[in-house]
């Protein structure tokens, strides 16, 4: 309905708002200013029932947004991450991702749609003229801005239309909960799982290349061998988590070359086993210099002396590589005599 369809007596009194001045072209201003078109009243300006309908529509959109946010939270908590559904024409997709995307999309869309509908149908639609002015605002201009803001707030009806105001605040307050819920993905807490590995008394040392348990005679002087604990398979669901802690490197030294007494006591016939995880930021160590018995981390060149308790002789690593105490079982295989005596990996532990 436009203002042309409404009897003259039902239209609101003419307002004082300027619609722009009309000017004709002359020599100084060669382009005529036609001024603003006549203002047309909206149905909501002249019909209280139409205004109420718009108010309810806006409140409904904000309410849907609140429900969608609650749906987002419910989906996140209840839908298993491995459940999939068929959605035409996309095909099979994750039910959790679909539900999270749909509910968050609806929540944000309804806030936007509610705000737009509110502005288009209920807030003042009088054309405003903003004159250009210098960038540095005069005190009087700042005062004018505050006055305009107060006037805009009054004209938006935010104080008078409590239903819209309350539902909007509710929608805006709830929608950040979606982000808060996603923080749950940072968990679960590791508790003390990072302080222990799969190594335990009696676990055989398995060669990662041959998948065979190692015997002392398999480890030659000057060679570098990598091992994992017996029972840990690449097909295990937590293989990466476990091997990141339990990866082991084995070297055979001449017993006389071992300077550190504890290292010698924890070795078997010169065979020593150390964590393969660099104590700087956790890269896997892979370079061995057999003449010097040094191992080198390729990430930042930390260097450890395997003949002297794997102490750091160069680079940013904070402490020596943890050693695994080993022995030989009745069948002649190399076995662990327990877990590492200290946590493996970066020096976080010294600060903890
Ligand atoms: S991770 Fe090994 S030196 Fe940085």
Entry summary:
The protein is an alpha+beta fold and 352 residues long. The chain has 9 helices and 13 strands. The chain has a 5-stranded antiparallel beta sheet.
Structure description:
The chain is α+β, with helices and mostly antiparallel strands and 352 residues long. The protein has 2 domains: 3-186, no CATH class; 193-351, Rieske Iron-sulfur Protein. The chain is built from 9 helices and 13 strands. The protein has helices at residues 43-46, 48-78, 95-121, 139-156, 162-174, 176-182, 239-246, 261-265, 348-351; strands at residues 84-87, 91-94, 205-207, 224-229, 248-252, 271-275, 287-289, 294-296, 303-305, 311-314, 323-324, 326-328, 334-336. The strands form 4 sheets. Strands 3-4-5-6-11 form a 5-stranded antiparallel β-sheet. A 4-stranded antiparallel β-sheet has the order 7-8-9-10, with no helix packed on it. A two-stranded antiparallel ribbon has the order 1-2. A hairpin with a 3-residue loop joins strand 1 and strand 2. Helix 2 runs antiparallel to helix 3. It starts with 42 loop residues before the first helix and ends with a helix. Mean pLDDT is 88; it is low at 14-19. Bound molecules: FE2/S2 (inorganic) cluster. Residues 1-46 are annotated as: Disordered. InterPro entries: QcrA_N, Rieske_2Fe-2S, Rieske_2Fe-2S_sf, Rieske_Fe-S_prot. Keywords: 2Fe-2S, Cell membrane, Disulfide bond, Electron transport, Iron, Iron-sulfur, Membrane, Metal-binding, Oxidoreductase, Respiratory chain, Transmembrane, Transmembrane helix, Transport.
């Amino acid at each position: 309905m436009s203002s042309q369809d409404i009897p003259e007596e039902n239209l609101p009194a003419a307002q004082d708002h300027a619609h722009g001045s009309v000017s004709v072209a002359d020599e100084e201003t060669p382009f005529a200013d036609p001024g603003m078109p006549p203002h047309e009243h909206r149905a909501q300006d002249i019909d209280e029932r139409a205004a109420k309908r718009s108010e309810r529509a806006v409140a409904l959109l904000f309410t849907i947004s609140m429900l969608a946010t609650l749906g987002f939270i419910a989906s996140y908590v209840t839908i298993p991450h491995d459940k999939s559904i068929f959605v035409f024409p996309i095909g099979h997709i994750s039910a959790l991702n679909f539900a999270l995307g749909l509910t968050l999309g609806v929540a944000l869309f309804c806030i936007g749609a509610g705000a737009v509908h509110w502005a288009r149908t209920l807030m003042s639609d009088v054309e405003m003229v903003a004159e250009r002015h210098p960038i540095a605002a005069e005190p009087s201009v700042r005062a004018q801005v505050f006055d305009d803001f107060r006037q805009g707030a009054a004209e938006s009806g935010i104080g008078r239309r409590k239903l819209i105001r309350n539902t909007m605040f509710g929608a805006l307050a709830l929608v950040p909960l979606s982000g808060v819920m996603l923080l749950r993905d940072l968990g679960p807490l590791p508790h003390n799982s990072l302080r222990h590995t799969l190594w335990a008394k009696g676990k055989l040392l398995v060669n990662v290349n041959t998948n065979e348990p190692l015997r002392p005679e398999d480890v030659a002087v000057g060679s570098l061998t990598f091992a994992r604990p017996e029972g840990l398979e690449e097909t295990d669901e937590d293989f990466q988590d476990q091997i990141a802690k339990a990866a082991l490197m084995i070297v055979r030294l001449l017993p006389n070359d071992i300077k550190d007494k504890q290292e010698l006591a924890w070795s078997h016939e010169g065979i020593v086993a150390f964590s393969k995880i660099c104590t700087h930021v956790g890269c896997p160590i892979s370079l061995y210099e057999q003449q010097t018995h040094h191992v080198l981390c390729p990430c930042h060149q930390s260097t450890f002396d395997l003949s002297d308790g794997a102490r750091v002789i160069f680079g940013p690593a904070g402490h020596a590589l943890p050693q695994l105490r080993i022995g030989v079982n009745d069948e002649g295989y190399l076995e662990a005599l327990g877990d590492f005596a200290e946590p493996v990996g970066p020096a976080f532990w010294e600060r903890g």
